[in-house]
Automatic annotation (TrEMBL):
The keyword Lipid metabolism does not apply. Gene3D superfamilies: MFS general substrate transporter like domains. The keyword tRNA processing does not apply. It comes from Eiseniibacteriota bacterium. InterPro entries: MFS_trans_sf, Sugar_transport-like. The chain crosses the membrane at residues 107-126, 132-154, 175-193, 199-220, 258-279, 285-307, 319-340, 352-378, 390-409. This is MFS transporter. Residues 1-26 are annotated as: Disordered. SUPFAM superfamilies: MFS general substrate transporter. Keywords: Membrane, Transmembrane, Transmembrane helix.
């Protein structure tokens, strides 16, 4: 339960750093079984979230309940906030546990229950927008926060069950197959969004998401986890923050990686309002959300064919530089299309403007994929030996505030307009590009020697 991001699952998960000792190594059959369960888990989890995609479906749904762009931006960023924010609180507790799957399972039950309850409440509450909006933030918020509570356990289980030499293929497989299933989900979303009955329309989407992610949780819960001694920990959540603050103020590499990854919020801010601009300001209607989802996911999936080659030639830092610069270029292009569209100067037609924005969503999805691949790799490459789990928790915790930027972006859309926000997103992305350029190049640096003695590594 960790994408991304991409950002649980492959869209948001970062590869864990193995290193615990004490259990016997798993046999080849056991490794293959855990590997397949993990890949299926990631693929189905992403497919389930594709039915309620945070960048397309959620903003269109919330626009039915409120005119506040700030609330729409906050709702679309809950997935990222929930994934990042709780990790500092659970890190000391999780690190002391010899078994991690129990934590994952509990979080999975809470998440599935909250999402299913919201799907059931759509029918009786659709006629009461204020009550439905409150239920959304309560139950969908619980679903998102549950990811953060299970995130470190999820990553630790992967570290204990997947051999180090297969981690790259493992994460790539989850991203590729998950993204492919999300594309199929996007086709279904496009058709469901044509249903005139709003309660039925969104009830089907949230209900399908509940069923599919529940199957994903069950698959990962079936992984056979070895018992390992507790890892390095600190006294409590406040000590996690204090130690992280020392890293932030005293470690230039930590700070630059944080700024580079935080600039990924530019796409998270841009995405929802790009869809709303096409749907409302250009008159494309709710059905364009499905097309934007397909375009974004297609870019996300296909880009994974290019990143390994770029990584081999330019390293993870090179991917981060390309992704941050490309995100800024997409934001500038979106602003230009908006200005030239019928909304602004009228130099290009409505249909042409929508197609252009859909094409830019494709490129934005590719840049999002690159950001996730680069960030996950750089976390491992740059983390101090022996404390990677704490490093990951601290980095993700400090990333949390940047996930509020979509809410700020929504307020700016209310005060100004979407193209202004697109331009500000470009500045944010290019700030991240500058930080990424200053990161150390890890090509040729031998990885830290890890124990081969046990299945915990």
């Amino acid at each position: 339960m960790s994408t991304v991001a991409v950002p649980e699952e492959a869209s948001r998960a970062v590869p864990p750093a193995p290193g615990a000792r004490g259990a016997a190594p798993a046999g080849p059959a056991e490794v293959r079984r855990n590997y397949r369960l993990g890949v299926l888990n990631g693929a189905l989890y992403q497919a389930g979230e594709g039915f309620i995609d945070a960048h397309t479906v959620i903003p269109v749904f919330l626009a039915r309940l409120t005119e506040s762009r700030a609330l729409i931006g906050l709702g679309s960023s809950l997935v990222e906030i929930g994934w990042l924010a709780p990790q500092f609180a659970v890190a000391p507790w999780v690190a002391r546990r010899p078994r991690q799957l129990a934590v994952y399972r509990r979080a999975a039950v809470v998440r599935a229950g909250a999402l299913g309850l919201f799907a059931a409440l759509l029918w009786p509450l659709m006629a009461h927008p204020a009550a439905l909006l409150a239920a959304f933030f309560l139950l969908y918020g619980a679903y998102c926060l549950g990811a953060g509570f299970g995130a470190l356990s999820f990553m630790e289980v992967v570290g204990r069950t997947i051999p180090r030499e297969r981690l790259g293929a493992f994460w790539s497989s989850r991203l590729f197959w998950g993204g492919s299933l999300v594309a199929l989900a996007g086709l279904a979303v496009r058709e469901v969004l044509r249903i005139p009955d709003l309660a039925l329309r969104y009830g089907l989407l949230f209900g399908a998401a509940t069923v599919v992610v529940s199957v994903a949780y069950a698959l990962f819960s079936a992984v056979r986890e070895p018992v390992c001694p507790p890892g390095e920990s600190v006294n409590g959540p406040l000590e996690v923050l204090r130690d992280g603050w020392r890293q932030l103020t005293g470690d230039r590499t930590f700070r630059r990686l944080l700024v580079a990854r935080s600039s990924g919020a530019a796409w998270l801010t841009l995405g929802p309002f790009l869809v709303l601009f096409a749907a409302h300001d250009l008159g494309g209607g709710a059905k364009v959300a499905g097309t934007f989802l397909l375009a974004r996911v297609a870019g996300f999936v296909l880009a994974n064919l290019a990143w390994p080659r770029l990584s081999a030639s330019r390293g993870s830092r090179g991917i981060m530089r390309v992704s941050t610069f490309g995100t800024g270029a997409v934001a500038v292009a979106c602003a230009a299309v908006a200005v030239f569209s019928p909304w602004g100067l009228g130099w290009i037609g409505r249909s042409a403007a929508i197609v252009a924005l859909e094409s830019l969503a494709f490129v934005g999805g590719a840049m999002q994929s690159g950001m996730m691949v680069a960030y996950g790799s750089l976390l491992l490459e740059l983390a101090p030996g022996g404390r990677r789990q704490l490093f990951v928790a601290q980095m993700n915790t400090f990333l949390g505030p940047s996930m509020l930027l979509p809410a700020l972006g929504g307020a700016l859309v209310d005060w100004f307009n979407a193209p202004v926000v697109f331009g500000l997103c470009a500045l944010l992305a290019w700030t991240g590009h500058r930080a990424a350029t200053g990161l150390p190049d890890q090509r040729g640096v031998p990885p830290e020697a890890l124990s081969e003695e046990c299945g915990c590594g």
